[in-house]
């Protein structure tokens, strides 16, 4: 979807935004939980010590995958701010991302309730990792 028409998924659900990294994290977490359920099922069915050794190794890897997935999600997450227009036809969404001394703000136009499209040339690079929209130091014209 992002390559063909340059639209990105962003669902505004009450006060929470569901974006692509959150969806990927949710799918990986769901897959890990399914893997753990499969390993528990296989543990009950097998009696061989070698097979149980591989199942224990699978459990260890599955348990270690959960915090690694969470860590990747935390560093890939952005903060979104919705700026609705009076007629609700030209809504703007601002994406703020900051990590250490890097930050950027990208502006998008909402196409429909599920997708946003990046506005060409509307990228702002604040200094020192500062996030002005989160600090409520901005104005909209």
What's the short story on this structure?
This protein is of the alpha+beta class. It has three helices and six strands; from the N terminus they run H-E-E-H-H-E-E-E-E. It has a six-stranded antiparallel sheet with strand order 2-1-6-5-4-3.
Name the strands of the widest sheet in spatial order: 2-1-6-5-4-3
Portion in strands: 25-35%
SSE class: alpha+beta
The major beta sheet can be summarized as: 6 strands, antiparallel
What is the rounded distance between the termini? 30 Å
Number of continuous helical runs: 3
Q: Could you give the order of the helices and strands?
A: HEEHHEEEE
Instruction: Identify the overall geometry.
Output: elongated
* Helical residue percent band: 40-55%
| Extended strand count | 6
* Low-confidence regions: none
Mean pLDDT: 84
C-alpha Rg, in Å? 21 Å
Task: Explain how this protein is built.
By secondary structure, the protein is of the alpha+beta class. It is built from three helices and six strands; from the N terminus they run H-E-E-H-H-E-E-E-E. The chain has helices spanning 2-5, 20-45, 49-76; strands at 7-13, 16-19, 79-83, 92-99, 102-110, 115-124. It has a six-stranded antiparallel sheet. Strand 5 (102-110) and strand 6 form a beta hairpin. It is elongated. The relative contact order is 0.14.
